[in-house]
Structure formats: C-alpha cells, structure tokens
C-alpha cells in the first residue's frame, strides 16, 4: 500500500542486499536528496509504518511525504549515514535513539515549533533520557510497550504468568525468543530478579544474567529478529511460547486466534518506546517541524494508538487505550539507561551469541 509515495526496503535492497548498503547511495530514484516538494520518512515498516503514513496523509500541506522502511535500527542508521540528505524524519526505538545520538545523525527539535507535543503528551513522557541530550530534545515519544511473551493455550498446561515457563522441559523445541541483545538480556535479568540498568560493571550480576539467558536458551528452536516472524511462529504453532509485543499479539487475536494469550510476567519486563526525530542535515527543517506538530494533534495520536495497538502517552487516555495488553503510563514503566547499557552491547552480544550457538 502506498501513501504519497512509499518505498519498501525490499525495493531498496533487491539488488544490493542488506550487507551492501553502500550501494544504495547510487539509487537516485529512491534515495535521492530531499527536495522542497517532499519530505522523506524512514520507518520500521509493517503496521506501524502504515499507520504512521496514514496520519501523514492527512497533513494539510503542499508537500508530500514519501516513506521508506528498514529492517531494524542498525539498517536505519546505516541508511542515514551512507545517504546524507536523503531523509528528513525518522522513527527510532529507544535503542536507536541512543545509537543515533552516539553517531551524531539527529538534529535537536525546536519544541516551540511543535506546541502539540507539550499540549497533548504527558509531562512524564517528554523527558525520557534517550530522547534528550542535555537540555536539547532529540526525539519525541510516539508509542510504547513492553516485551512480554505469548503462549498457545491449546498447547500449554494452565495459565502462564512467569518467565520460569521458558524453562519447563515440556516445551523443549517449542520456545522462540527475541534476537536483540539488550531486549533479550533485559528480560533474562528481570527473570533473575535483576534490573539490567544495575548490571553493567557488576561482574556477579552480569554472570547471573547470562546464566539465566543460558538456561532460557535450552528450549529455544529459533530466535526472531522482527515482529512478523514472532507472529508467524505463533500462528503456525512452531512456537508454543514466544517472546512478543502486545500490539502484535492483539492483532493476531483479532484475526481469530483466541488461543493465543499475551502476558507481562510477574517478574516484570523492560519498557520500550518508538520515537520520532529529525535527521541531521535535513533541508526541510521547518516543514519537518510542521509535520511533527500535525502528528501530535490529539486525534492523530489516538489514531496511532488504535492502528498500532500500543500505548501513546496522551493526556487523558481513552478507556479503549487503557485496555491494551501492555498499557502503562510512562511513570509506571522502567526504561533502559542507555548511558550504562549501550557501552556493553558489543561485548554482551558476543557472549550471548556463544550461548545461542550452543
């Protein structure tokens, strides 16, 4: 489906391949520099991209918005770095915001040009650390959730409420977990009674977290890197238990899969958020701010929540939003401290990979 010109990552990477993003710089038909007639948006693809583009479609402007989707944070940052001037606005998760600031690829946002953000978004959600750089606002929270797990009630015994379900030998070869280092370890830490923000530089806690990750790996048949794969595993009954996002599971239930339940385990799960930011070097700064201000109108925020099945930290949320699987006000959520966690990501990835390979 196309919204004012929407390019899928498959079109971008059809000949280049994910591992050769440098070749994209020459794809002038798709990644040409932004012009005065259009804004270029880079997002995650899937339902969130479709919903975001539908909100952009209602923007009353002579400019059009062209969307491109990427497979994840690493690919997004590579596209931006290797194709300067090709994007204006980007959607990044909290991991991506931390990395993007480290790579210096974002512009500060002038909140005086986005008055709807302060007007409609709760104060507790407007200064999350990964969206700030000192006094500068680098990103605007869009939607948020948590990574719990889903399970097939036709295949498991009773109600599952704990991460300990991942360890049950009855589910050998029937478990799938997320293939994102910090997300996976955040939940392993929670299952071990730890907060991942307190793990860096504590050798004993680090060993405890990885021991739990090793134990949880025992029943795993595959790790998934994108939400669509997690839902496919559940739909096809490859996975009886699968780390998942509540919004994705709700969409699956709406398809008629009433046997799939979603749970935030009693030990807890770390929160995540997707955020909107302006790409450094954009030649359309004023228009980018106008587009953000349009997005943060209350009716558009409610449309995002309804279309994505996730919480938007809007003031006075409607009851329908509060009934979402992982609804929570920002003040009740624990987010990762990326200043502490991000420096450990490479070393932790290597250690986790060795566990997964075994």
Automatic annotation (TrEMBL):
<protein>
    <submittedName>
        <fullName>Spermidine/putrescine transport system substrate-binding protein</fullName>
    </submittedName>
</protein>
<keyword id="KW-0813">Transport</keyword>
<dbReference type="Pfam" id="PF13416">
    <property type="entry name" value="SBP_bac_8"/>
</dbReference>
<keyword id="KW-0574">Periplasm</keyword>
<dbReference type="GO" id="GO:0019808">
    <property type="term" value="F:polyamine binding"/>
</dbReference>
<keyword id="KW-0732">Signal</keyword>
<dbReference type="InterPro" id="IPR006059">
    <property type="entry name" value="SBP"/>
</dbReference>
<dbReference type="GO" id="GO:0015846">
    <property type="term" value="P:polyamine transport"/>
</dbReference>
<dbReference type="GO" id="GO:0042597">
    <property type="term" value="C:periplasmic space"/>
</dbReference>
<dbReference type="InterPro" id="IPR001188">
    <property type="entry name" value="Sperm_putr-bd"/>
</dbReference>
């Amino acid at each position: 489906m196309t919204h004012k010109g929407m390019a899928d990552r498959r079109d971008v990477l059809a000949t280049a391949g994910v591992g050769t993003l440098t070749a994209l710089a020459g794809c002038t038909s798709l990644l040409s520099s932004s012009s005065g007639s259009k804004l270029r948006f880079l997002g995650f693809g899937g339902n969130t991209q479709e919903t975001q583009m539908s909100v952009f479609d209602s923007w009353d402007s002579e400019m059009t918005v062209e969307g491109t989707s990427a497979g994840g944070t690493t690919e997004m940052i590579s596209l931006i770095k290797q194709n300067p001037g090709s994007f204006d606005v980007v959607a990044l998760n909290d991991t991506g915001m931390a990395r993007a600031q480290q790579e210096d690829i974002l512009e500060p946002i002038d909140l005086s040009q986005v008055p709807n953000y302060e007007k409609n978004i709760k104060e507790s959600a407007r200064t999350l650390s990964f969206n700030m750089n000192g006094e500068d606002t680098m990103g605007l929270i869009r939607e948020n959730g948590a990574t719990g797990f889903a399970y097939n009630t036709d295949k498991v015994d009773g109600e599952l409420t704990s991460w300990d379900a991942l360890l049950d030998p009855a589910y050998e070869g029937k478990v799938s977990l997320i293939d994102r280092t910090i997300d996976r370890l955040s939940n392993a830490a929670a299952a071990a009674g730890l907060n991942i923000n307190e793990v860096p530089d504590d050798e004993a806690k680090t060993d405890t977290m990885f021991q739990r990750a090793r134990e949880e790996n025992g029943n795993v048949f595959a790790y998934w890197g994108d939400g669509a794969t997690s839902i496919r595993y559940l739909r096809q009954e490859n996975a009886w238990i699968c780390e998942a996002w509540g919004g994705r599971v709700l969409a699956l239930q709406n398809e008629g899969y009433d046997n799939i339940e979603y749970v935030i385990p009693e030990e807890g799960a770390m929160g995540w958020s997707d955020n909107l930011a302006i790409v450094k070097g954009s030649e359309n700064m004023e228009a980018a701010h106008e587009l953000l201000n349009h997005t943060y109108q209350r009716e558009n925020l409610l449309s995002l929540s309804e279309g994505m099945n996730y919480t938007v930290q809007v003031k006075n949320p409607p009851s329908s939003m509060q009934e979402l699987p992982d609804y929570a006000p920002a003040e009740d959520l624990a987010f990762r401290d990326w200043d502490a966690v991000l420096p450990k990501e490479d070393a932790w990835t290597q250690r986790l990979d060795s566990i997964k390979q075994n």
